[in-house]
Amino acid sequence: MTHHIATDRKANLVGSVWMIAAMAIFAIEDSFIKAASEMLPVGQVLVIFGLGGVFVFASLALINKEPLFNPDVVSRPMCIRVVFEITGRLFYVLALSLIPLSAATVILQATPLVVVAGAALVFGEKVGWRRWTAIFVGLTGVVVIIQPGTDSFSMLSLLAIIGMIGFAGRDLASRAAPAALSTTILGLYGFLSIVVAGGVFAVWQAKPFLMPDGEISLYVLGAVLAGVTAYSCLMKAMRTGEVSAVTPFRYSRLLFGIALGIGWFGEQLSFAMIAGSGLIVVSGLFIVWRGRQVSAAK
């Protein structure tokens, strides 16, 4: 029994390290995309980034002898997932290009709150009044950050909120995705949807694609490698430790995003940003803790 507990603790510790690594690398990916989008049209950044991810995941699938197309790929949950993926990626990258990295990262941290609310509303999962209160508190944190009705409010902040809702919808659709689809295939079609998002926005934006120089090429390449690596670390984290043990470490992305925003892009933190971040993180951690308590009581 003692050996079993020790093994679980070790697995949770290793899983937590994988999660922290994933969040750090996701923040680096965001930084590369923000840097590239300052010099290239956003549509072009998305297309190149998406194609890079498609190449990596398609190669992994072929190495693992997985078919690149499966009838389940066009199932209803997958189609819904692609729509949300396109929405999330497009609007989040637009947010990265137009608002501070730290602000976009903090708003993104509300995704798990929306996922829990969506799971209750869409899948009928039982969510008690305590967790509903935490969701409300966390979303209040988002309102505190964007400060509607004040001179500090920027409509551009809504881009990050739409992106966050898109990612939450994608995560919910992933729960309903056919179990036969591996994480590699989900990654492949996730990045393929980024190519579609970039193409659609490029047509709407009507800006000609530019030939990237060496520096920009390194930013885009870095974003692709960081995105694929972070995704792999995330999958490793979720499969190594208990979900309830490793999930709280998702919020470490907030710290990495703020640090890179300040260190790389010279951003400054406001009191509203700090207060809103606190509300989001505390409510998110409470939901994870409460979910674990409810599961243990069953």
Keywords:
globular; mainly alpha; 298 residues; 12 helices; single chain
Set out the fold topology.
Layout: H1 2-37, H2 42-63, H3 76-98, H4 101-108, H5 111-122, H6 129-146, H7 157-176, H8 183-205, H9 214-240, H10 243-246, H11 252-265, H12 271-297
Your description of this structure?
This protein has 298 residues and is mainly α. Helix content is 79%, strand content 0%. It has helices at 2-37, 42-63, 76-98, 101-108, 111-122, 129-146, 157-176, 183-205, 214-240, 243-246, 252-265, 271-297.
Largest sheet: none
CA-CA gap between termini: 21 Å
Number of helices: 12
Q: pLDDT under 50 segments (min length 5)?
A: none
Order of helices and strands: HHHHHHHHHHHH
Helix content: over 70%
Secondary structure class reads: mainly alpha
- Anisotropy-based shape: globular
How many strand segments? Answer: 0
Mean pLDDT, rounded to whole units?
Answer: 87
Structure in a nutshell:
This protein has a domain at 11-40 and 213-258. The protein is 79% helix and 0% strand.
